[in-house]
Amino acid sequence: MLEGIRKKHSSAGHVCYAWQLGVEKRHYRANDDGEPNNSAGMPIYGQIQSFEITNILVAVARIFGGTKLGVGGLISAYRESAKMALEASKIVERKLQSHFQIQFDYTEMNKVMALIKRLQLEITSQEMENSCTLNFSIDMSAENKMLEQFAALHKVTLSKLN
Predict the structure, then answer these.
(1) Cα separation of 63 and 72, whole Å?
(2) Considering the entire predicted model, what is its pTM?
């Protein structure tokens, strides 16, 4: 991707960037591409943090216009460029989900299904026989409430899937 930006903007002296990946364990990198230390990549990364987004790469190609900006001017220019790019972007929000498997005897079907309906769980697979197995997904934010309610059903085994 960065090579594509370099080709598209061949007269750019610097293509500085920052990226952040992951949700629970975040990884990031900021690169100044030859600009003075922390004058480009970190201001770009700061905008990623201020927008509270992840799984993103922001790159800024700078073409020298004849005026030296100094370190303060570079920081401001890269920060503002990243901000403008993020403001103009379509940011897609996704809810994090946990996946569970529940096992129970067929005699517990009504209790289990009533709870699944009340919690609005998304069933992803099911096997209904004398011994039943259901896999479902739930928003991580509602996980604790769901676990408490399933704990009240004593003839049910609930396990978290990876």
Answers:
(1) 17
(2) 0.68
CATH of the domain at 32: 3.30.230.30
Nearest to 103 by CA among 51, 69, 150, 162: 150
Per-residue pLDDT tens digits for 50-88: 999 999 999 999 988 888 889 999 999 999 999 999 999
Q: Same structural domain for residues 14 and 47?
A: yes
- CA neighbor of 47 nearest in space, from 84, 22, 73, 90: 84
Report the CATH number that the domain containing residue 139 is assigned in CATH: 3.30.70.240
| Shared domain check, 7 and 83 | yes
**Cα separation of 83 and 100, whole Å?**
39
Query: β-strand 97-105 against 14-21: which pairing, if any?
Result: unpaired
**What tens digit of pLDDT does each residue of 99-128 get?**
999 999 988 999 999 999 999 898 999 998
CB 58 within 8 A of CB 17: yes
Are 99 and 124 a contacting pair, CB within 8 Å? yes
Closest CA to 35 of 64, 56, 58, 6: 64
